[in-house]
Amino acid sequence: MQGTDQLFLVYRPQFYKTNGRQQLILTADFSQSYLWTRYINDKDAHDSETFTLNIPGATIETILSSKVVKGYVYRRYVLGVAFAMDS
Fold first, then answer.
1. Does the pLDDT of residue 13 top 70, yes or no?
2. CA-CA distance, 27 to 77, in Å (whole number)?
3. How far, in Å, CA of 24 to CA of 9, rounded?
4. What angle do CA 83, 69, 8 make, to 5 degrees?
5. Cα–Cα distance between 53 and 55 in angstroms, integer?
6. 3-state secondary structure 1-65
7. Could you read off the pLDDT of 53-86 as tens digits, one per residue?
8. Whole-angstrom distance, CA of residue 43 vs CA of residue 8
9. Cβ atoms 84, 68 nearer than 8 A
């Protein structure tokens, strides 16, 4: 997860694997504005840390075909959220 004005989801490629040499960047929105505020405040407080999104049971194909997916944002604690996806 990257961005503070616009949220970007960056699929981490595995360049050392033959089939993993692609990168995917999506824009996304939090389903509720208070979650965006919570994310921004936490990102500001911990700007050197990496935030990740885990969408259990999802593949790239299901994420791209869905308008809304539910996942978990990780830093040191879990923040359950739903995302509206723009590809």
1. no
2. 23
3. 8
4. 45
5. 7
6. CECCCCEEEEECCCCCCHHHCCCEEEEEEECCHHHHHHHHHHHHHCCCCCCEEECCCCCHHHHHH
7. 888 888 888 888 887 888 888 886 555 555 555 4
8. 14
9. yes
Q: Cα–Cα distance between 76 and 49 in angstroms, integer?
A: 10
Query: What residues have CB less than 8 Å from 28, skipping those under 6 apart?
Result: 7, 8, 9, 83, 84, 85, 86
Q: Please report the pLDDT score of residue 64 as a whole number.
A: 86
CA angle 21, 87, 28 (to 5 degrees): 105
Token pair belonging to 75: 């830093």
SS3 label, residue 84: strand
- Which tokens hold the place of 11? 């699929």
What single letter denotes the amino acid at residue 80? G
Name the amino acid, one letter, at 62. Answer: T
